[in-house]
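Quick bug: Mono/diheme cytochrome c family protein output formatted oddly.
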Amino acid sequence: MKNRTLRNTVVFIIALGVVVALAVLLGTFRSSSVASQADQPLSPEQMQALIPRGRELALAGDCFGCHSQAQGPMGAGGLSIPTPFGTIFSTNITPDKQYGIGNYTRADYHRVMRDGIAPGNRNLYPAMPFVFSHITTPDDIDALYAYNMSIPAMPVPNKANTGVFVLPVRPFMNFWTLLNFPDRKAPHNEQRSAAWNRGAYLVEGLAHCGSCHSPRNFMMGLEFSRALQGGEIDGVAVPNITAPSLAKRGYDVPSLSAYLATGVSPQGTSFDAMYTVTHFSTSAMNAEDVNAIAVYLLTDASGKLTTPSAPPAPLPQAVSPESGTPLATGRLAYMASCAGCHGLNGEGIPNVSPAMKGNAALAMENPQTLIKVILNGVPTQIFKNGQRMYAMPPFAHRMSDAEVADIVSWIRAEWGGQGTPVTASQVSAQETAVK
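Here's what came back:
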């Protein structure tokens, strides 16, 4: 009797689990957060009037930085987004009716931005940051829709995804969203300034700064409880951009605003993925929004703007390294290979190479980013204020892993205040290392 009862209980639990799993798979628990205003089409006059506002919002969201190839037409998609499960290619978001979003209604567009669901009840992958655009107001989504529909239509087919994404896995995104898509609200604090509230709305929403600058769980979902505390992309550390961390690296509102608006500041220049952000997004935004982002990021939990720290002083072991030690070897390697551009004292050369002294990348606890730069180099970069930085060559073929480790250790000790030695194994572990 007991065995039968136990067996029946197990069968019931399994059956219940199957029913619940099917319900999740079919999207039973996915509710729409689309405002009722989206049911009524916008008139041509309304669409036209919303275009300027939509353009500014699209810039804040860096929509075309992801949905355009470097040498391709704006919004036509095709940019590769690597994940541990395969590569996703961004889609055509021009108003082309065959390959783009030309057939999207106002309500369709709202559901994409608010719920991450495309027409045909098709789940979007979170490479499209709907977990952030979810908090965008209905009026702002209307403006984005109007602007999106005003750009030239490009009849460019979408590229096929790779890996697991070639399989019919979109329904399984319902499980992912159940666990990783909280119903977030736009931050608002009556006790804070208008600039802080505007910055909060942008950073936590369309600008989706936390998409790169926050840790992710094993499902690649954002850990919102640790928002902006730094992340990792392609094996490279992405810096912590909370107020205390930014202040520790010397940023204040003017310098962070300058960095976002131009890509250049005393703390260094933007490069890699951040160069795309500053070049195509923040440098084209209006100054008020850029300043608002800086104000929000540099305001601490008590509501006060943080005070920037001075650049870290050289560590004693870097100033006078003992002969034959890794730091001594690293110092000599810097003088031989780096000082010609970056200066004997790390002062850099305007329009040639950034300064090492005060450079925020050197003060990061995780050395991965600096290792990547030395191994792979940086291409020539042109910034919106007329400045440029010439290409830094890759050193992967010129230095051994041990030599790279030594030079990174010395640079970080000399200008980054970081005394933990970097090992050859940390260099060889970089996926981007070229042998």
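Actually, after a second look the formatting is fine. Residues 194-297 form one domain. Closing.
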